[in-house]
Amino acid sequence: MTDGYIYCFSNASMPGILKVGMTERTPDVRLKEANSSDTWRPPTPYTIEFAKKVLNPKQKETTLHTLLSQYTERINPKREFFRVSLEEVSKFFDLMDGEMWVKNHVARAEEEEEEDEEEDEEEDEEEDSTRVRSTDVKGCRDMTKCFTDGQRIRHTIGINKTLIGTYDSSKNGIAFDGKIYYSLSEMAKAHNKFERPHRLTNTANGWKECEYEIDGKWISTYSIHC
User: Fold this and answer.
1) 86, 108, 178, 216: most buried, per Cβ within 10 A?
2) Which of 132-136, 138-142, 161-165 is predicted with the least confidence, judged by mean pLDDT?
3) Using 50, 70 and 90 to split pLDDT, how confident is the model at 126?
4) What would you measure as the largest C-alpha separation in the chain, in angstroms?
5) Would you call 27 helix, strand, or coil by DSSP?
6) CA angle (32 as vertex; 26, 36 as ends), nearest 5
7) What's the distance, Cα to Cα, between the start and end of the chain in Å?
8) Dihedral sign, CA of 112, 114, 119, 125?
9) Which pTM was predicted?
10) What is the CB neighbour count within 10 angstroms for residue 36?
11) pLDDT at position 3, please?
12) How does residue 86 score in pLDDT terms, banded at 50, 70 and 90?
């Protein structure tokens, strides 16, 4: 069983937006990485608001991101930035067992050991999309070959905000509430717009975000093999 840290970073250039993620190193080492990249780095540095040492940090990060997506606004589904207050994030941290991180408790030797490690500038995206990349290779993208008439397809936001449509082979679209969506992304965007009407951006990759039903089980549409 591994341990690591769940952290919350803020940035003066992004008021009202917090970066919530995990690292198996220490929060200040992760902070240094976030502030050292020259690509798409904010004009002001990140600051550690708080962090907590926990067991199974990846699992807890996934759960925390799910909850934050449910109750707050996730700026980009592939990244770990949320429009949320420190007080709200702090309440979620309180629910996790673990030890709050204090900088003075971190050994300098551990920091120096990690300083020489080079991190890919897309690490944030990789950490957040591990489940997609590690499961299967991209599969079929032709709905006429992927789905059968009457098959159920769903898109879920957070824990329980779910839209379930039915594939209509005669229209090659997904039927829901009298409407036809002619792509998975169109259905996912419509669901996002309904559940999050005040969201500034409405991007969606339906093939990565949706699931289809087979024998009573829901399976990701990302790696369908025709």
Assistant:
1) 86
2) 132-136
3) very low
4) 65
5) helix
6) 150
7) 38
8) negative
9) 0.54
10) 13
11) 92
12) very high
Instruction: Inform me whether the pLDDT recorded for 135 exceeds 90.
Output: no
Say how many residues make up the chain.
226
Determine the Cα angle at 137 with ends 136 and 141, to 5°.
Answer: 115
Question: 169: which 2 tokens?
Answer: 């082979």
In the chain, beta strands by DSSP E: 3-11, 17-23, 46-55, 73-74, 81-83, 99-100, 152-157, 161-168, 173-176, 179-181, 210-214, 217-220
Residues contacting residue 172 through CB under 8 Å, at least 6 positions apart: 143, 144, 182
∠ CA(65), CA(209), CA(61), 5° rounding? Answer: 15
The 3 state secondary structure assigned to 129-151 is: CHHHHHHCCCCCCCHHHHCCCCC
CA distance 42 to 19: 12
DSSP 83-124: E--HHHHHHHHHTS-SEE--GGGS-HHHHHHHHT----TTHH
- State the pLDDT confidence band at 205, using cuts at 50, 70 and 90: confident
